[in-house]
Amino acid sequence: MKYVCRISIGLMSGFLLVACSGDGAQNAQIDQMAKQVGVKLQADKPEIIAQGKAVYLRDCAACHGANLEGQQDWKIRSPQGLLPAPPHDASGHTWHHPDQMLFDMTKYGVQKFAGADYESDMPAYADTLTDTEIIAVLSYIKSRWPDNIKKRHDGLNRQYQRSKD
Predict the structure, then answer these.
(1) Residue ranges of domains in the chain
(2) pTM exceeding the 0.85 threshold for the entire prediction
(3) For the structural domain made of 52-164, what CATH number should be given?
(4) What pLDDT digit, counting tens, does each position of 103-127 carry?
């Protein structure tokens, strides 16, 4: 499957805005720019949501559930000391984190935020998914949230961006 991605950088916000409709050469540009200007999920873009759903079902659903429901008792550590995969729907905490943090956790692993000694079954996807795929899968997840949760998440992103300026 071939797709082309257009890039539009919001001058005021400095966020990367991605709209998929193109080819792999442009994906490399998006991957590079995501590192430079920040991440903005595109939960209102049908092409990105469709790509994200495919990536989610292939790479995430086995642990986080086909309906984003997560694993049972996700707040209780296993006998090995690991937390089960949390839900990504409105009942979870995914929407409590800004876009950039979600992107970084997915790409580099939870250890980036919890410390190098934190143990998790959640792998880092830096060597598995492109930045474009990570943005797409997170956009798909956000697209499934109720409108009130999306609005709260958007507010969180605005707060986060102000703290970075």
Answers:
(1) 52-164
(2) no
(3) 1.10.760.10
(4) 999 999 998 888 888 888 999 999 9
